Each structure stands twice: as structure tokens, then as C-alpha cells.
Amino acid sequence: xxxxxxxxxxxxxxxxxxxxxxxxxxxxxxxxxxxxxxxxxxxxxxxxxxxxxxxxxxxxxxxxxxxxxxxxxxxxxxxxxxxxxxxxxxxxxxxxxxxxxxxxxxxxxxxxxxxxxxxxxxxxxxxxxxxxxxxxxxxxxxxxxxxxxxxxxxxxxxxxxxxxxxxxxxxxxxxxxxxxxxxxxxxxxxxxxxxxxxxxxxxxxxxxxxxxxxxxxxxxxxxxxxxxxxxxxxxxxxxxxxxxxxxxxxxxxxxxxxxxxxxxxxxxxxxxxxxxxxxxxxxxxxxxxxxxxxxxxxxxxxxxxxxxxxxxxxxxxxxxxxxxxxxxxxxxxxxxxxxxxxxxxxxxxxxxxxxxxxxxxxxxxxxxxxxxxxxxxxxxxxxxxxxxxxxxxxxxxxxxxxxxxxxxxxxxxxxxxxxxxxxxxxxxxxxxxxxxxxxxxxxxxxxxxxxxxxxxxxxxxxxxxxxxxxxxxxxxxxxxxxxxxxxxxxxxxxxxxxxxxxxxxxxxxxxxxxxxxxxxxxxxxxxxxxxxxxxxxxxxxxxxxxxxxxxx
Length: 552
Fold this sequence. Notes:
The chain is an alpha+beta fold.
């Protein structure tokens, strides 16, 4: 009877196993079909996206051709007005770029007969226009400004430009229509791919749920079989019951301990996985933010140059006809463009400070500081600034980044001591609890520590622009570079009492050995600041014949 029960229990597991196999086979088949459909949809999406990008490239090439034509006309007008040969080379370069742009457009639209015909119509118009510009230049050279003025009166230039622009507009309109069609197809393919992927996800959830139910039933059946076998074994070996009970209790205790251990291991693995995921997410977010800042700053340059260039062209071409208030507005636009350019440069510098590989090389901060201060002194020889730099300030760091740090800190010291009669700047090092600190100290106007929370924030300034020019990006860049080196930076100041900036870097083996050596020297009564102090004022005066300066 017991044997028959065992055989029946074992036979009951076989249908469950076949069900599990059938569920997994059906799931794999369905996922395979969905994968093939998803691959086809994504492939079509990539193809349509590539064609849309091709249309954008064609449109950008047409814009470049028209911009080159505009540059050629501007250079011709400048030459006609001034007779300066310096404007002839920009005209030639713009004419070459215009021709090269047309060849590029032909290559890009080789598969589009309609666009090829439009290029065939546009090309002679551009050639005629360039020929007319060349004739006006030759006339100006041969017969002077009076002749060019007479020629301009009868020159059909503006109508010619309108014909060229209409032809270019027809070409761009046709390509824009293609772009919209291709983008529409790309959206449809993307929606289809998303729908297929969503369906696949739903199917996967359903199959997983079915598998969990089937496997749960199998486990319940297995537990019932195990209980029946245990009961039969107890009846057949009644004499060993007590021993069996004792072994069962031991086994249960071990099983519980094993389950607890497995739970603890699983919890630890889950925590590690979550930490790794969160770290990867933060790194990806930081990289995306840095790339976005760099891309935005880079893409702003082209419209900024166009705004500034056209404003200057208005001033040059129509300066006599612009009244006083309009001239003020144009000058404000030009100055604003220059300031925005400085802000973009600062944003790019801030982005680069956390990008790229950090290379640790031997960097002599003393020599670097002396060179920067001497450069400032030569730039403003009328200033008298006492600059003292401690020798032997050597670290292992990224030389390019440390150049940015020292130039920013010394530049601030130079700038904010401009109103101090006996301006002084010092660069030295100290040991603070085994940590080597590098100091840049000046006796300039200082600042109120109540506003120090804004000191290292981008585009935050403690002084007005009309008092001390700047964009407020230098100290934020310095802080990021110091943090990348594993160090810290802090500032101390009070109004009218100057400012002190000190920063630390992660110690290399050489720095650590030097710190221990200095500590031993100080303990034995021989400790003096490492190196000697150099007065850069005399050095700069010897080069330029004027008193030395400090930082910008």
C-alpha cells in the first residue's frame, strides 16, 4: 500500500512538469515573435531617422551657402567703401565657400532629381551675382570710389539678391517638406516599436504570473509527497521514532539557520545592487548635465557671433544714417554680445573643469604663480604691487587644471587690490593637522563673510559690475577642480582688510613624505617654511622697466 501511494504521488508530478515545460515553451515562442517584430520596427525607425537627419544636413548646407553669399556681399561693400585690400581676401574666401557649398548640396541631393533641378537653376544665379560683385571690386580698384558709386546706382543688385533668395527658398521649402514627411514616418515607426515593446512587456508579465502559479502548485505537491513519505517512514520504523524526531528537530533548526543566512546574504546583495544602481544613475545624470551645459554654451556661439556681426555691419554700412539714440542701442547690443560671449567662455571653462581625464604630474606651483604674476605685471606696468611667492610649492596634480586654479585666485587678488595704495600679494603653504594648505593672500578691498555662501556659486558676484568687471565663474571652477583632486577650499575676509583663499589637495606619496620631513624639522627646532620667498615686483620691473603687478 505504501509503495502504491509513493508511485501515485510520483506519477502526479509528471503532468505538472509537462505543464511547466509547455508554459515556458509558449513564452519563449511568443517572446521570439515579439523580438523579431520589435527588431523590424526599430530598424525602420532608424532608417527614417537617418533620412530625416539627411534632410536637416541638406537644409544646413543651403543655409551655409546663403551665409557665404551674404559674407561675399558684405566684404564687397566694405571694399567699395574703404578701398582696403584687407576686405578682398574675405570676399574670395566667401566666394569659394559658396561654390564648395553648392557642390556639397549636389552630392547630398544626388538621389533627388527635383532638388538637382533646383540646384541647376540656383547655380547660375549665384555665379552671376558673384561675377557682378567681382566687377564692382575691379571697378573700384581701377576708377576709385566715384565710379563705384555711379555703378551702384544702376546696379540691379537688390533684385538679383531677391531672385537668389527665392530660388534658395524654393529649395529649402521642398527639403522641409521632405523633412516633415520623414519625421512623420519616424514617429509612426517609433510608436509601433513602443506598442510592440509594451505588448511584449505585458505578455512577459502574464507568462511570469502563470509560471509562478504552476511552480507554486508543483512545490505544494512536492511538500505533500514529502509529508506522506515521512509519515510512512515513521510507521515502518516505530522503534526509531525518538531518534528520528531528534534528527528532525536538528534538521529544522539547521534549515531555519540556513534560511536566515540566505535571507541575510540576499538582503546584502540587494543593498549592494541598489547602491550600484543609484551610483550609476548619479554618474549618468552628472555626465548628462555636464554635456548639456557644454553643448548649450557651444551652440550659443553661432547666433551670438551673428548678432554681434550684423550689429557691427549696421554701424559700418549705415553709421551716417543712424541717429544718436539708435547708435546707443547698437553699441549696447555689441557690448551685451561681448559680455554674453564672456559668460559662454566661463560656462565652457566650468564644464571642462569636470570633464576629461585627471592626470597627476609634478607641478611647481611656485614657478606657475611667479609666471602668472609677472604676466599681470607686464600687462599693467603702472601698478606697484609687492608679490611674494614661497619657493618649493610642488604638488602632484593636473597641470592644466592647476593653471586655471592659480590664474583665477591670483587674478582676483590682482583685480581687488587695484584701489589699494600699497598693494601686496602673498603665496605660501602651511601644515594644518598634517594636511598641506596652499594660501593666496592679498590686502585688497575684501568682502563681507555674511555673503560667503555665494562665493563659489556660478554667476554669483559680491561686487557690482561697474566696480569690478567679471562674470562670476572663476571661483566656482576653482572649487570643482579642487574637489576633483580630493581637496577642499575655503576663504576668509573682511571689508577693507583683504582676502585669503586656502586650498588643499589629496596628498601623493611625495607630498606625504615632504609633510613628515617638515614636521620633524619643526619638532627639532629647525623648522622653517620650505624654500625662499621671491619678490616678483623687482623681476617684473627688470623686464619691463616698470613696477610689478599682481593678479587680475
